[in-house]
């Protein structure tokens, strides 16, 4: 009964070593920094090897995910300022909706960018369209947050 557990640790549960190498590669790419991913992409280019568009997406997400924290803060400040007689739950609900909206926009824009929708008929290369797709949701939420801040400053 219990002796089988020891024999399981000795076997490769994935079967093929190629699968294990692919898994290790995915984990290492996810753990790389922006500069490390950029160097990896440049090395692939020099060697003429094809590489997945996800590398570009992951590379730019290393910058856009921290930037999204700033953008969400910009959006949350005017939502948090409520007159004293109104319920305080409203700002919290708007903040949850804003986070969900950013996540949804980011998912949709990244998927569209990886499909090449933002190449604008060949004007931009696929890597450039991925950059546009990754930064577009941040820009839209920042614009909306800026408009809310401007509106609140005029009201107060």
Describe the structure.
The protein has 156 residues and is mainly alpha-helical. The chain is 78% helix and 0% strand. The protein is built from six helices and no strands. Helix 4 (53-80) packs antiparallel against helix 5 (89-114), helix 4 (53-80) packs parallel to helix 6 and helix 5 runs antiparallel to helix 6 (126-155). The chain is elongated, with a radius of gyration of 22 Å. The relative contact order is 0.10. The mean pLDDT is 79.
Topology:
Blueprint: H1 3-10, H2 17-31, H3 34-47, H4 53-80, H5 89-114, H6 126-155
Key phrases:
156 residues; mainly alpha; elongated
Give me a quick take on this structure.
The chain is mainly α.
Estimated structural class: mainly alpha
The shape is elongated
Uncertain runs: none
Following the backbone from N to C, one meets helices and strands in this order, namely HHHHHH
Please give the alpha-carbon distance between the first and last residues: 73 Å
The Rg value, from CA coordinates, equals 22 Å
Q: What is the average per-residue confidence, as pLDDT, rounded to a whole number?
A: 79
* Beta fraction: under 5%
Determine the fraction of residues in helical runs and give it as a percent range.
over 70%
Total number of helices: 6
Number of strands: 0
**What's the main sheet like?**
none
């Amino acid at each position: 009964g219990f002796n089988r557990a020891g024999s399981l640790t000795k076997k490769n549960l994935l079967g093929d070593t190629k699968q294990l190498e692919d898994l290790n590669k995915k984990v290492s790419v996810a753990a790389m920094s922006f500069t490390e991913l950029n160097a990896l992409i440049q090395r692939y280019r020099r060697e003429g090897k094809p590489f997945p568009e996800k590398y570009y997406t992951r590379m730019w997400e290393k910058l856009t995910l921290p930037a999204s924290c700033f953008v969400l803060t910009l959006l949350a400040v005017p939502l948090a300022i409520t007159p004293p007689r109104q319920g305080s739950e409203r700002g919290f609900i708007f903040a949850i909706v804003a986070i969900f909206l950013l996540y949804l926009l980011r998912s949709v824009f990244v998927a569209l960018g990886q499909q090449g929708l933002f190449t604008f008929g060949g004007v931009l290369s696929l890597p450039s369209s991925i950059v546009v797709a990754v930064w577009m949701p941040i820009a839209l939420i920042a614009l909306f947050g800026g408009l809310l801040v401007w509106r609140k400053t005029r009201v107060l």
